[in-house]
Design goal:
ATP hydrolysis activity; AAA+_ATPase; binds adenosine-5'-triphosphate; 4-stranded antiparallel sheet; Rossmann fold; globular; alpha/beta; cell membrane
């Protein structure tokens, strides 16, 4: 569903994404990495919102630069700060999206996605009265109106309580079961370990490791978690500067 070949993006002298090679099948794929690793930049390129500096990628067989319109018709993107109008009802928000996409039989499609996201009972209420979890599900409903084949999610459970997160994951899994490919970023490694079919850990714009959570954790050792895999593959700022903790302690002692 997604083929990435030597994809790079620089901002001035900073290489945010560095020669990325990655294939994503019909799966729930998690892109993990520390702050500033290049996750959002990657997603922005794949969703055609940002042009690569070099390299190529195809989404659903279409080139993200040369066939960006075709890519857009096949995908949806739910960023962290998606626009939902608090002064409109949930249904009105989804209707707006359906109108923008020119969906035929708009009302039935709107009802269908609202129902899918478990919002039917509250669809007539103003979004200002929604909980964080309901708002996130409304964003997903908006993203579903044009029946995308690939759904990009930027930290879909950020800031939600435990039950809100669980619900979002139930919906994501349901979408996958219906045939959708999910490409997501998250900082919640326990969730990625539990729900993603495969993950990639990216650090300083480069993929450090990619595989299923089971394979990655078992390669580290018995009872290892994805947190351990992450720490093994991502350098701390001190390590990046060439220190290790013992050197740092010795330095402090000498002072
Ligand atoms: N428009 C921009 N102009 C300049 N630098 C940018 C721009 N967008 C991103 N960067 C830089 O590129 C690097 C990668 O940023 P990016 O937002 O992709 O990281 P991230 O992995 O998504 O981080 P986070 O987990 O904090 O969201 C960072 O050093 C960031 O400061």
């Amino acid at each position: 569903m997604i083929e990435i070949k030597k994809l790079s993006r620089s901002f001035g002298n900073l290489v945010a994404v560095d020669n990325l090679d990655l294939d994503v099948e019909n799966e729930i794929f998690g892109l993990l990495g520390p702050n500033g690793a290049g996750k959002s930049t990657t997603v922005m390129m794949l969703t055609t919102l940002l042009k690569p500096s070099s390299g190529t990628a195809k989404v659903c067989g279409y080139d993200i630069v040369k066939e960006s319109k075709k890519v857009r018709s096949k995908i949806s993107y739910v960023p962290q700060d998606m626009a939902v109008d608090r002064k409109l009802t949930g249904r009105e928000n989804v209707q707006l999206y359906a109108k923008l996409y020119g969906i035929p039989n708009r009302n039935s499609k709107v009802d269908e996605v609202i129902e899918m996201m478990g919002l039917s009972e509250r669809a007539g209420d103003l979004v200002a009265t929604y909980s964080g979890g309901m708002r996130r599900r409304l964003e997903l409903a908006q993203a579903l109106v044009h029946e995308p084949e690939v759904l990009f999610l930027d930290e879909p459970t950020l800031g939600l309580d435990v039950s809100g997160r669980k619900k979002i994951w139930e919906h994501i899994r349901m979408l996958k079961a219906e045939g959708m490919t999910i490409f997501m970023t998250t900082h919640y490694l326990e969730e990625a370990e539990k729900y993603c079919n495969r993950v990639a850990i990216i650090d300083k714009g480069r993929i450090a490791v990619v595989g299923s959570p089971e394979n990655l954790t078992s390669s580290i050792g018995e009872n290892a978690s994805l947190n351990d895999v992450f720490l093994e593959n991502v350098k701390t700022p001190e390590e990046q500067a060439g220190f290790n903790s013992n050197q740092f302690r010795n330095l402090l002692r000498r002072r």
